[in-house]
Design a protein that fits this description.
With 249 residues, the chain is mainly alpha-helical. Strands 1-2 form a two-stranded antiparallel ribbon. A hairpin with a 5-residue loop joins strand 1 and strand 2. Helix 5 crosses helix 6.
């Protein structure tokens, strides 16, 4: 049977590098990435901030690679939405023609709407970040396990193809992706090694060659196919894969 799930071995890897969302300053005030320029006197005040529209909106911007808005900028954005609604009504009265300023604001509104639509998609990067940003390690692992699609030894590491058996799967991955298990003659637990690699991809969404973490299995598989990352290397990873090999045999 496949080896037991060694999630603890790569729990830290699942989280991936991330800028701290909160910090405590030397004067004991609390600060949060999603409230730039602001400080909170108590942890309770900062946690209350987590339930605000400003916090949720800046989380979306962080995932999209955009700098967070200050409270004043966010309030201006909200006010702009009101102005846009009024401008749309005025434009309709003029027969649909927009002024230069109205067209510029319309473009900005479409961009913001796209970010928000991505956040509403449960499989999107924005939605996954919003769902996991405040979780501790145990809760994070539990979330990843619940979100992972079902898989068995017939499931391809690099696409959603499913073979009838482990042997057929290895043949398929060799043919379609040029993937081979390294030092196969010394591998004492082929099924266990493949199952572990599947856990990294299907649960952790971790690329096998680069160890980069992605927000979904579809994203990590697309990355590995596009970047020539359909491979595993033992060099430098002996401790991670050692239990599946007997190099002295």
């Amino acid at each position: 049977p496949p080896a037991a799930c060694p999630l603890a071995a790569f729990a830290a890897m699942l989280r991936g590098p991330s800028r701290p969302m909160e910090e405590v300053t030397e004067d004991k005030a609390f600060r949060c990435y999603t409230a730039p320029g602001e400080t909170f006197a108590t942890e309770a005040e900062m946690k209350a901030h987590y339930h605000t529209e400003l916090h949720r909106f800046n989380l979306k911007r962080k995932v999209a690679g955009l700098a967070p808005l200050t409270r004043a900028q966010f309030e201006e954005r909200e006010a702009r939405g009101v102005r846009e609604a009024a401008a749309a009504a005025a434009s309709q009265q003029r027969g649909g023609k927009l002024s230069t300023a109205e067209r510029r604001e319309a473009r900005e509104a479409r961009r913001e709407a796209k970010l928000e639509a991505q956040a509403r998609n449960p499989r999107s990067k924005a939605a996954q970040h919003a769902a996991t940003s405040g979780l501790g390690e145990e809760d994070y692992l539990s979330h990843k396990l619940k979100q992972a699609p079902a898989f068995d030894l017939g499931c391809d590491l690099f696409s959603r193809h499913k073979s009838e058996s482990l042997e057929a799967n290895l043949a398929h991955m060799a043919r379609e992706h040029g993937f081979y298990l390294p030092y196969l003659d010394y591998c004492t637990d082929v099924a266990g090694l493949v199952h572990y690699l599947q856990q990294k991809v299907y649960i952790g969404n971790v690329a096998l060659a680069s160890d980069r973490t992605f927000h979904s299995v579809e994203a990590v598989q697309a990355h590995m196919r596009a970047k020539g990352g359909c491979r595993v290397s033992l060099e430098g990873s002996e401790e991670e894969y050692g239990e599946y090999y007997d190099m002295q045999g």
